[in-house]
Amino acid sequence: MSALPAEPIYDVAQLGHVELLTPDLEASAQFFTDVYGLYRVAETADAVYLRAWNDDVLTSLRLTAAEQPGLGHVAWRTTSPQALERRVAALEERGVEGAWHDGDVGHGRAYRYTGIGGHEQELYFESEKYRAPEGQEPYLPNQPQKFAPHGAAAAHIDHINLLVPNVAEASRFQQETLGFKLRERLTPAGAEEVGAWLSVMTKAHDLALTKEPHPTEGRLHHLAYAVESHLDVIRAADIFMEQGVGVEFGPAKHSRTQGFFLYVIEPGGNRIEIFTGGIHIFSPDFEPVTWTTEAGGRGTAWGTPVPESFHSHATPPYPVATGAAL
Amino acid sequence: MSALPAEPIYDVAQLGHVELLTPDLEASAQFFTDVYGLYRVAETADAVYLRAWNDDVLTSLRLTAAEQPGLGHVAWRTTSPQALERRVAALEERGVEGAWHDGDVGHGRAYRYTGIGGHEQELYFESEKYRAPEGQEPYLPNQPQKFAPHGAAAAHIDHINLLVPNVAEASRFQQETLGFKLRERLTPAGAEEVGAWLSVMTKAHDLALTKEPHPTEGRLHHLAYAVESHLDVIRAADIFMEQGVGVEFGPAKHSRTQGFFLYVIEPGGNRIEIFTGGIHIFSPDFEPVTWTTEAGGRGTAWGTPVPESFHSHATPPYPVATGAAL
Amino acid sequence: MSALPAEPIYDVAQLGHVELLTPDLEASAQFFTDVYGLYRVAETADAVYLRAWNDDVLTSLRLTAAEQPGLGHVAWRTTSPQALERRVAALEERGVEGAWHDGDVGHGRAYRYTGIGGHEQELYFESEKYRAPEGQEPYLPNQPQKFAPHGAAAAHIDHINLLVPNVAEASRFQQETLGFKLRERLTPAGAEEVGAWLSVMTKAHDLALTKEPHPTEGRLHHLAYAVESHLDVIRAADIFMEQGVGVEFGPAKHSRTQGFFLYVIEPGGNRIEIFTGGIHIFSPDFEPVTWTTEAGGRGTAWGTPVPESFHSHATPPYPVATGAAL
Amino acid sequence: MSALPAEPIYDVAQLGHVELLTPDLEASAQFFTDVYGLYRVAETADAVYLRAWNDDVLTSLRLTAAEQPGLGHVAWRTTSPQALERRVAALEERGVEGAWHDGDVGHGRAYRYTGIGGHEQELYFESEKYRAPEGQEPYLPNQPQKFAPHGAAAAHIDHINLLVPNVAEASRFQQETLGFKLRERLTPAGAEEVGAWLSVMTKAHDLALTKEPHPTEGRLHHLAYAVESHLDVIRAADIFMEQGVGVEFGPAKHSRTQGFFLYVIEPGGNRIEIFTGGIHIFSPDFEPVTWTTEAGGRGTAWGTPVPESFHSHATPPYPVATGAAL
To answer: Whole-model pTM?
Structure first.
């Protein structure tokens, strides 16, 4: 048996929740509720907790007031309490120095650490299920909440894209310590790896890592929620334009992951995606796809041009502005 | 730690392939290729091997000539060679008496056994990847084959529905020996469980078990391939009607799994579905949904009536016809 | 030139507006706004005027309080003032005894008469354009109103279906006096014509006439608004179910007109459709299609069964209930 | 009555057919059949006649071998023989010197003339209906041909875009002599009109006229066929890429007409569109929309950038190449 390859690890279940920082908490909260279509479930003096109608947990997004936009932290939910212990042990064996805390609105104790690339990350298992209050009960009991769409009706949290100084190193770290599966990577001819798409179960990606162009760390490229169909993305584009939120990029089809997408910048300055589709990977021995060329229009599946801002804008801005975002 | 619940098992990766029996091999093969949209990849004197354009393995369906239609066998692919050994050990510990064989077109050694409910089942790991021949290479390298749709363009194998005499028992067996996760079940008021929907990873179901109404075993309700969107199901309905293959049921939306579907009977007599969507389950502590009532139109999500044949027809027919199917 | 066939008449431009009667004005108004997705533009003591977001006129629907549900009147807008005079002359030449009135909210003088089959009808030209108030201006100026969907987001008034004792006679009358074009008709083998689909311009139908089964006149089968895509109909079905408004029939595809549809009964008792697609007819010498058989599943395009209520329910109910609708 | 505005004219029914010139007849014919999805219905030594599956006439496209790509002619079908005579009289009254000819495959006598802007145009009425041969009969009799999609499955001819030196003059000519209705126009601040969208019945456009940037005449910007849904355009994009036909622009949403589109260059060099949706105009007093600014992303509805080639490429190329196209 010694010749067998190591088994895949299924200790991380999902992208659990994300904390975004915003210099204009109220404007961001208004965007995420009225335009993006989320629901406000709790708030404190400096934070608003949100959920999507099809998230089965209480909350998947925390907005926190801050000087600058950017990522507060990204939290991965494990498949069991035991898996949580195993992954924390793996992190610590690797030299990560994190700390346990008691949790937050919607989840229990969590292990907080700084990942490769400088982003605050969290591992946790205990999560509060969403129980629809009176008037929000769904018609079909296999759905957490009534479908009464408003705005873009973002359905559930899907994936996050982080900028990292060393893509190959950060990708390897996610694979080795947390069992992420590498699905696709982008390695321009003669250059270092500039993108990696990793998933925890069968999606094309829960986490994308792309190359940080500046001498800085911890920046966010974008956060994505999913919708059910291409038409929902198209409808979202119409709704964003009508609401005065310009679409930065899309609707179009990614070559990597094959998802159908659009991106906007929320009022706090963070880039937010509406995503649907994408390939699903069921084979346990799926071979990661290496993209070696950007020629021939394969930056996007149909050759849709990528706007310059998609490469230059991230949060917090670089160099960090003093006093104001964007 | 002794109070912790058992961890979920991730040893089965996917519904790997299915063997269908047909009394008219050539007519069935013609249906699955020209109408359903699969590709013929190999054949022997009494069998035809098929693949869908988005299956990443060589073949997901074997058609075998037989007196009667029905299920030849259903095969589950494990997540690793080690997982295969573990699951075979779990089966044998449970008293299952199966046997190893050397494999078939597209896959390596496999453990064949008779499941609870009388269906031939298989566990295996080694599988042959599809390598697109010249002219079939895809434009995007993260896709196994060129998308050049014909017929209903079924994209990849999705799930199977088996009739079993005792749903609760068969469901428990799948959970306990193979780590299937129970997602939904149907228990009419005051009656025994008549349906169970189980999955191996994050889908709403890879396997549905429904109540066999007759004193028999081993029958097939239906086999489903997936397509990407609702419109692909609608297009398939138009194509089936044009090709003289009447739609038995749908397009409509299931209440269980929330998939959008249609069913036809292939020329050999087996029921075949085109399926899209369906809820995805990312939470590791998802609580199975118990449906206790059929009232209020929830047999289907919008109240679309279920045809009587959907309850009465399965393969092989009962009582087994002598000499001819259907 | 005497051998030339008569030229087609293009004097009627569109189904302009409809008045529905309802025994529960407030419940009906709430349905049409909150669930169906229309907007309230005016009201009087016993009437509410509504518009769809993509209607370019002020109002396309008047709800009027009444003892019984049913049709108040249906109004056809002509292509010019001159066309209005010509069509009134044609009606009067045919023996119709109508009367001019000064108009109503949203339109100018109109000729009101009783059509063949007993329905109140109107011809008019002058119509008030919708001018979006502040906050409702669209992003794109070729659209009357901001797209900020709520409920089923019905987009514009599309067609109406009236029950008539003699379909062939009523159809001929619409063709000869108003220039309606016969597109399709249903004539079961050996029976009289039971359905006629007529249009004024290039749609598959603006008016459907179907056989009244009872010795009565003037009843409404249904009124339809259009949406843009199949997915909008599917979304509407989900929304209706969530709002407690059961879907009577559909989503499915009509064989006649090939539209994709669903029907619900509004709280006042009238049947209301959400419709999309349908064939478009550009050829000026299009030959009407005669359907002679209902065999083979062609009552609907894919064989979806037609509920009995679709044949038995119309408004007002028959025999007319005393004191309460439905 | 003298104060009444002139009545709208409904003498032209549709864009009937188009002749495209191509320097590589066989490659163009192969593209239009295998990739675009049309059917070959007749051919001569130097021409191939094609139809779309949902055209109700025999043929809507003629490809003719020529030195250079470009427009052979565009043909408008009238609503009656009488309308044909009226429109020819109107043309001749305006000083147009055309000539009658006996027709071509699929249509009868036609009046050929050179339009404002230098394009060969034709008016005709008599057209040969398509009668599906055995094996091509549709399941539904209100459809001309079986739906058995291949390639992009272009459904029916939709509109054409011609470059003209003087948009306002050419637009006025189409309105005054043929009764085209102006729907939208683009007049950049302080500049002459650079675009006009005109229709004959209720579509957003059957004809677009855009500004010819060079001192030349008679050039084609693009020809469009329609498909039913957004998803059909998206599917077409995938199919074009897989077939090695790069997408020039789209899928995206036009601001003018609001259609959802994509463009490719066929092997002969002509630009071809796949189009769906677009606003429909039912009001007879629709006020043309004047677009005065390109700011704010309204070149396309969502801000999708317009490639430079979309402004620079037309056929024949300018200056005309000697010996070879593109």
So the answer is: 0.96
